[in-house]
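In response to the reviewer comment on reproducibility (Comment 2.3), we provide here a single inverse folding case reported in full, input and output, so that an independent group could reproduce the run without further information from us. The structure tokens appear first.
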């Protein structure tokens, strides 16, 4: 089996370190590069130093240096940083696994354009369990398409900078599509003061931020006399990292194009 050669962006962050640990502990993967922002105190250090290991790799802010030996770059950073990484990766032919959230529609269009040169897996959540949940929500929305109000509640740690989470928005998009709608036409992101009665057909979002919550998502289908809840809770970032490795195995067979975890897991071929 060929070894998958990964570089990791945001190497000194919480998610970056989880990705590095997962790559190092995966038999068919190797770590060949580690990136961080200019000015980071970790530049020049071994990316696995926090594990007490020596990889002979140094964390760098030089994108071409960090990607020179890589087949794939895993990126869970910020939209602006990810787009800078994508531009260089497209020049070098390095495929990308993107778990960054908070992109605007214009920025997403830039990812689409880059996918004409390289293969990209872009997903709001790389967890296999979360993507199974997306499929369950598609089924539920098609069954509960009349007489049920839909609310999405998400909770994350106090350091998260975007809201609602990319996963919550992904859930909303899955549900809206199953109902034959566009999420932008029916989403309600904030309620305050005298709001009046709930608008029929709306998909509501509520956001919680606090402590070290990794990521909790609950979708409620609220009917008269009953409520159905579909919940996913993350206890560790490990599931995101493991999903990223799985995305790399999928991309090894692709030359270009924009994909998501539903493609990686072949969930789109499961018929309802």
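Designed residues, in position order:
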């Amino acid at each position: 089996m060929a070894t998958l050669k990964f570089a990791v962006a945001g190497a000194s962050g919480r998610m970056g370190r989880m990705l590095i640990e997962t790559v190092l502990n995966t038999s068919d993967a190797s770590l060949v590069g580690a990136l961080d922002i200019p000015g980071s105190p970790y530049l020049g250090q071994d990316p696995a130093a926090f594990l007490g290991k020596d990889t002979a790799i140094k964390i760098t802010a030089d994108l071409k240096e960090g990607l020179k030996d890589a087949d794939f770059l895993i990126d869970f950073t910020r939209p602006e940083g990810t787009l800078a990484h994508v531009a260089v990766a497209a020049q070098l032919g390095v495929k990308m696994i993107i778990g960054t959230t908070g992109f605007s529609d214009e920025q997403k269009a830039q990812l689409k354009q880059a996918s004409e040169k390289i293969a990209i897996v872009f997903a709001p959540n790389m967890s296999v369990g979360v993507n199974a949940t997306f499929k369950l929500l598609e089924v539920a929305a098609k069954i509960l398409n009349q007489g049920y109000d839909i609310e999405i509640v998400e909770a994350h740690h106090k350091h998260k900078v975007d809201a609602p989470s990319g996963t919550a928005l992904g859930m909303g998009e899955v549900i809206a599509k199953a109902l034959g709608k566009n999420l932008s036409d029916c989403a309600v992101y904030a309620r305050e003061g005298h709001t009046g009665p709930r608008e029929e057909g709306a998909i509501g979002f509520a956001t919680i931020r606090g402590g070290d919550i990794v990521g909790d998502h609950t979708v409620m289908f609220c009917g008269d006399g009953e409520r159905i809840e579909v919940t996913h809770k993350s206890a560790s970032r490990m599931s995101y990292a493991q999903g990223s490795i799985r995305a790399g195995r999928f991309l090894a067979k692709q030359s270009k194009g924009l994909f998501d975890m539903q493609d990686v897991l072949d969930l789109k071929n499961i018929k309802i």
